[in-house]
Design goal:
Arc Repressor Mutant, subunit A, Jelly Rolls, five-stranded antiparallel β-sheet, alpha+beta
């Protein structure tokens, strides 16, 4: 779930509630207009959701089970908006204007005419992502947006996968962005939505330069955060995991004024610094900590550490102990 921050609007969880209390609480959310959901009969209702916004893009991420999301026709709060739902894990059934779609893991669906209403039914717990935004934001980017009022986006669509990964990474950050950064994030999200739905040629070229690059860079940084302790971590290995070239990875980092190697080194040094400053690890040797941080050469670790922190690893440990 998204930690408290400037962009978090609210979060809700049925965890720890009795079944009867869950139904009452969920109906209360619906009656207040906070979330249009209703419990399904003969099902155990559960929900764990967070809602936040970047600019005019509203985002809901979480898990629902034993529930039906219901947006009635002509709902004022959805006037002139579009809605994109993504089934991250599990299954759901979407209905709109007499049509029905079964969504499996990874599938997305765009409702370009939300004013006509729609339902999304989830008898079993499933993870989902929902985005709502004004139609005016998407219309200039997507030709024939209204070619169908319920548009299926298959799980294999690369831009949809990038969109989900990007938003999950943002949700894991303590401060996902504010001010100018928040507006940039909003633009990246819009670009990825347009590419997923079918941006026209000019808009697609622009979106790939902005949204796709930003999402890929965040995904690669998350990859580094998970593997920096591997001594053999290389740009070649990271590029292969993301199906891009090493040169493309280098170019992504160049846009932020650093190299891939500098980024990896910074993460390793930060990790080592945290361990050295932890009193509970006072018995561990500097060599052991350097190896855990991904350094194979202790002499190089000592030099790099001193350049970054203007202190030796032993000095940092002694200061914390004192």
């Amino acid at each position: 779930m998204l930690p408290p921050g400037d962009h978090l609007l609210w979060s809700f969880s049925t965890r720890g509630m009795a079944p009867e209390a869950r139904v009452v609480a969920l109906r209360g959310l619906c009656e207040r207009g906070t979330l249009p959901i209703e419990p399904l009969p003969d099902c155990i209702a559960e929900a764990e959701i967070a809602r936040w916004a970047f600019g005019d893009v509203g985002i809901v991420l979480g898990k629902l089970g034993g529930l039906r999301q219901v947006v009635p026709p002509n709902a004022r709060e959805f006037c002139d908006e579009v809605f994109l739902g993504v089934n991250i894990a599990g299954a759901a059934v979407a209905r709109h204007r007499g049509q029905e779609l079964t969504l499996q893991t990874g599938d997305g669906v765009l409702f370009s005419n939300v004013e006509a209403g729609f339902t999304s039914t989830r008898p079993r717990p499933s993870q989902f992502l929902g985005l709502r935004l004004p139609r005016r934001m998407l219309t200039p980017l997507v030709a024939n947006l209204d070619r169908t009022s319920m548009h299926l986006i298959p799980a294999r669509h690369p831009s949809l996968g990038l969109l989900v990964d990007y938003l999950r990474l943002l949700s894991s950050r303590q401060n996902p962005g504010s001010g100018e950064i928040g507006r940039a994030i909003s633009t990246h999200i819009l670009d990825l939505i347009a590419l997923s739905v079918g941006a026209d040629q000019d808009a697609a070229a622009q979106a790939k330069c902005r949204g796709v690059r930003a999402a890929r860079l965040q995904a690669i940084k998350a990859d580094v955060a998970s593997h920096f302790s591997d001594v053999d971590l290389s740009v070649v290995a990271v590029a292969a995991r993301h199906s891009v070239t090493p040169r493309y990875v280098h170019k992504l980092f160049e846009t932020e004024g650093e190299t891939f190697s500098e980024y990896v080194l910074a993460r390793r040094l930060e990790f080592a610094h945290r361990l050295l400053a932890d009193r509970r690890l006072a018995e561990r040797s500097v060599t052991s900590i350097a190896l855990d941080a991904g350094f194979s050469d202790v002499s190089y670790f000592n030099r790099a550490f001193r350049r970054r922190y203007d202190a030796t690893p032993t000095n940092v440990r002694a200061a914390r102990s004192g």
